[in-house]
């Protein structure tokens, strides 16, 4: 079996900027989604999420980095998705994102120097300006890209959030550890009633 080795490589100065992060703020529309809004006569009903981003959020939690979602919109689809990913910290329906971020930091006992953020448009700028590491997706607004320390090659809703998570995981030193866990040997199951040669499921 070919061993798993990290395939990602980032500039040292970027990893230095992203070290010490313990909380990561995420916008939704344009970051966790492609920014498209799907409306019916009953209102907004659908959002499209990417599985790569979802896995990145799970890995952050395994690395001890708390993901926090702050979004200007709200929808049942979004709440279902965040619940499925185990995201416990979220603020919905607020365009004034800095006070929301500060409240989360206070609740977690952290400061801006422990925080990172990814955003794509003007409402995200007050948070992106203050965090230790700011990121923007490839299709973000020019102003968000100008504030960001890093602009992903991926577009919002198409892996940009995962790319942001990857930088944080590598910078924190957890990427290799989490990758290596995939190759841990599996403990053999005890023999069933019919013995080792008994029927399998």
CATH superfamily: HAD superfamily/HAD-like
Uncertain segments: 194-201
Distance between the amino and carboxyl termini: 26 Å
CATH topology: Rossmann fold
Whole-number tally of structural domains? 1
What is the CATH class? Answer: Alpha Beta
Rg is 19 Å
Largest sheet features: 6 strands, parallel
The helix/strand class is alpha/beta
The strand count comes to 8
CATH architecture: 3-Layer(aba) Sandwich
Please state the overall shape, judged from the principal axes of the Cα atoms. globular
> Approximately how much helix is present in the residues?
25-40%
Give the ordered list of helices and strands.
HEEEHEHEHEHEHEHH
Sequence of strands across the biggest β-sheet: 5-4-1-6-7-8
Arithmetic mean pLDDT: 91
| Percent range for β-strand residues | 5-15%
The number of distinct helices, counting runs of at least 4 residues, comes to 8
């Amino acid at each position: 079996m070919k061993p798993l080795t990290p395939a990602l490589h980032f500039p040292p100065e970027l990893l230095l900027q992203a070290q010490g992060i313990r909380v990561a703020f995420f916008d939704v529309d344009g970051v966790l989604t492609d920014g498209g809004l799907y409306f019916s006569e009953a209102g907004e009903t659908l959002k499209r999420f990417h599985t790569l981003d979802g896995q990145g959020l799970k890995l952050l939690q395994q690395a001890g980095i708390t993901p926090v979602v702050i979004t200007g919109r709200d929808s049942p689809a979004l709440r279902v998705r965040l619940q499925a990913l185990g995201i416990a910290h979220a603020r919905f329906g607020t365009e004034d994102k800095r006070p929301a971020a500060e409240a989360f930091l206070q609740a977690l006992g952290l400061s801006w120097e422990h925080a990172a953020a990814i955003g794509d448009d003007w409402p995200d700028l007050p948070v992106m300006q203050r965090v230790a590491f700011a990121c923007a997706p490839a299709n973000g607004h020019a102003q968000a890209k100008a504030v960001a320390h890093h602009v992903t090659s991926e577009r919002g809703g198409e892996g940009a959030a995962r790319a942001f998570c990857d930088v944080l995981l590598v910078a924190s030193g957890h990427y290799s550890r989490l990758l290596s866990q995939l190759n841990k040997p599996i403990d053999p199951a005890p023999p069933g009633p019919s013995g080792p040669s008994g029927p399998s499921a």
